[in-house]
Amino acid sequence: MSSNAPGLVNWITLIFLGLIWGASFMSITVALNGGAGPLSIAAIRLAIGAAALYAASNLLGYRLPGLGNTKLWLFILAVALFTNALPFTALGLALQHVPSAFAGVCMAAVPLLVLPLAHFLVPGETMSARKSAGFAIGFCGVVMLIGLGSLTEGDSALPARLACIGASFCYAIGSISTRLAPPCHPIPFSAAALILASIFMVPIAFVYEGVPGAMTLPEWGALIYLGLGPTALATILLVRVIQTAGPSFMSLVNYQVPVWSVIFGVAILGEALPGQFLTAMALILSGLALSRKRLRKPQDMPAA
Q1: Alpha-carbon separation of residue 16 from 74, 89, 113, 234, 238 (angstroms)
Q2: Of 15, 45, 17, 18, whose CA–CA distance to 30 is shortest?
Q3: How far, CA to CA in Å, does 173 sit from each of 46, 129, 222?
Q4: Which of 243-247, 260-264, 288-292 has the highest mean pLDDT?
Q5: pTM for the model
Q6: Which residues contact 97 (CB under 8 A, 6 or more apart)?
Q7: Are 176 and 110 in contact (CB under 8 A)?
Q8: Measuring CA to CA, how many Å separate 292 from each of 32, 132, 133?
Q9: 155 CB contacts (<8 Å, ≥6 apart)?
Q10: Which pLDDT band holds residue 264 (cuts at 50, 70, 90)?
Q11: In the prediction, which pLDDT does 158 show?
């Protein structure tokens, strides 16, 4: 199928992907409210996602990269840290203090944060006037999200807000690492990254938080969803859309995730959103729209 004619199935899949990623922030909040620690949430979703994606990779006939390919594994390690372990942990820590919708809107800044990194690290990805203008508009939205007053008034939620922005920056670094990595099919590549991230996070979570205490079925369901949905299934669907409709079409999901996160946060969790919150989201999405161009690779939207 041509990337110029994505078709109904790809449109439905794209919307479904936006929904899957948009619901992940609500799910983290639900698991946190059930007593799971942020490190445990990151470790459990990574372990579930790694097992599911490794099984899917084998079923689809893909093998993990050979251990002798040292250069590729170094990039896989970078992705494991910056696309999985670090942002998952940062989001878990942050969502103890900020609304889930806030974290979802912060993720819309990832493609904008990629722009200056790509300018210095990716050949041919220079900051044109259009990209620079889009970055400037989006950055204003990020500053509005953090809140200028909180920088000088000692707002207790400021560290959590900065952690969300830090997670976005980690995803941007992970995206650049994926672009620069030697060729490898996305499914075994992602499976290998999740396995490394699990090896890193599971012992840390056990040492600092122990085994999660008694949680209800919905709270365990939120953890299982995080592992199977945005961490595993979304990767397979992402590959399918890119192969049949192209990476430029796939990039449209960047506009959906913050909207879904706001819908879930307000409608299901009852979160209250300040007025500047929606204005900040509008600025970030406007900056993204202005800076967007046809993408060569698919990894601009994280599996948050």
Answers
A1: 32, 25, 25, 9, 10
A2: 45
A3: 19, 22, 27
A4: 260-264
A5: 0.87
A6: 156, 157, 159, 160
A7: no
A8: 35, 11, 11
A9: 147, 149
A10: very high
A11: 83
The amino acid at residue 109 is A
Count of alpha carbons within 13 angstroms of residue 205, beta-carbon side: 26
Q: At what angle do helices 129-146 and 158-180 cross, to 10 degrees?
A: 150
pLDDT value of position 91: 95
CB neighbour list of residue 273: distance below 8 Å, 6 or more residues apart? 99, 101, 262, 265, 266
Listed residue (234, 281, 246, 235) closest to 103, CA to CA? 281
Quote the CA–CA distance of 85 and 109 in Å, as a whole number.
19
Of 87, 273, 255, which is closest to residue 164 (Cα–Cα)? 87
What's 233's DSSP letter? I
Q: Which two tokens stand for residue 47?
A: 């372990």
CA–CA dist 134, 141 (Å, integer):
11
124 CB contacts (<8 Å, ≥6 apart)?
Answer: none
Task: Classify the C-alpha dihedral 250-145-174-112 as positive or negative.
Answer: positive
The pLDDT tens digits of the residues spanning 4-55 come to 567 888 889 989 999 999 999 999 999 998 888 999 999 999 999 999 999 9
- End-to-end CA, the chain: 28
106 contact partners, CB below 8 Å, separation of at least 6: 142, 145, 164, 165, 167, 168
Percentages helix, strand, coil for the chain (3-state, rounded to 5) are 75, 0, 25
Token reading at 15: 């919307």
Task: Provide the CB-side half-sphere exposure for 149 (13 A, CA).
Answer: 2
Q: Are 253 and 301 in contact (CB under 8 A)?
A: yes
DSSP H helical ranges for 95-233? 100-107, 110-121, 129-146, 148-153, 158-180, 186-209, 217-228
